[in-house]
Amino acid sequence: MIKTNPSLQVNIVDFPETKIAVLAHRGSPNEIFKSVSKFITWRKQKKLSPKVNKTFNLLYDDPEVTAEEDYRFDICVEIRQDVSENEFGIVTKKIPQGRCAVLRHIGNDSTIGKYVNYLYNHWLTENDENLRDFPCFLHRVTLFPDVEEHEMITDIYLPIA
Questions:
Q1: How far apart are CA 154 and CA 157, in angstroms?
Q2: Which one, 11, 40, 48, 60, has least CB within 10 Å?
Q3: CATH superfamily assigned to domain 10-159
Q4: Confidence band for 136, pLDDT divided at 50, 70 and 90
Q5: What Å distances lie between residue 92 and 86, 138, 146, CA to CA?
Q6: What confidence score (pLDDT) does residue 71 get?
């Protein structure tokens, strides 16, 4: 776990409301890549390129403490128009506008959990902030295979009041 670390720069931003297409992954975190593959297939069919349409993940649960069958994780892409009914089960949702604490993570996903935990368990209380009623979410700024895994950039957003 990351304790207080002055080198971790957390910024406060006003995140704009963002319409997203969402594939809900429910179940074992070890099975996420099956859901991601399904989502990529749909995304390619709809021509929603990661270079044009931002990629997000909504994090509802901590995989370290949540039973596999109860784990929830949404795979998302920024869209302009609502999603029509489809065989993939992808639906339209919104990331609401509001204040967020943002922490940038560079590298593969193996250490993202430490950064998320830092925001919840240290930064939040040290800065006397309160959570909003929306889950932590990730903006996948760069993705593999466009960059090497150790060079991937992910912005972690913690919605605050």
A1: 10
A2: 11
A3: Regulatory factor, effector binding domain (3.20.80.10)
A4: very high
A5: 11, 17, 26
A6: 97
Indicate the domain borders of the chain: 10-159
CA distance 43 to 151: 23
pLDDT the model gives residue 114: 94
- Rounded to whole angstroms, the Cα distance separating 148 from 125 reads 34
- Give the residue among 130, 131, 126 at the shortest CA–CA distance from 4: 126
Provide the pLDDT for residue 15: 98
Distance CA 48, CA 50 (A): 7
| Beta carbons within 8 Å of 87's beta carbon, 6+ residues apart | none
Cβ contact 159:139 at 8 Å? no
